[in-house]
Amino acid sequence: MKTFRKLLGLLVVSVMIAIGLFFINSSVIVSSFSDKVSEILFLTLPVFIVLAILFYVNRALVRTVKSVRNKKPSAGEGLNL
To answer: Left if phi > 0, otherwise alpha if psi is -120 to 50, otherwise beta: which for 51?
Structure first.
């Protein structure tokens, strides 16, 4: 359930980024509302894919760093400390 929530949050952020990029690109020559909405939706998909990949790479790196940091060093052979 947490993963679904995080992906839903990424989707919302992707839609907001796509809307921002749509308004930044003011030279779009479409007049109908459906064309504008479809352009925003088509822009949302690649933004969402990039954000999801970055999210999971970041998660994997954090898990790796935590596991390395919490790992106890092994004792050397023949040393009884």
So the answer is: alpha
Confidence of residue 74 (pLDDT cuts 50, 70, 90): low
CB of 25 closer than 8 Å to CB of 46? no
**Cα 46 from Cα 2, distance rounded (Å):** 23
Q: Tell me, what amino acid is at 47? A: V
Q: Where residue 10 falls among pLDDT bands split at 50, 70, 90?
A: very high
Element (H, E) at 31: none
CA atoms within 13 A of residue 59's CA, in its CB half-sphere? 9
Amino acid at the residue 74: S
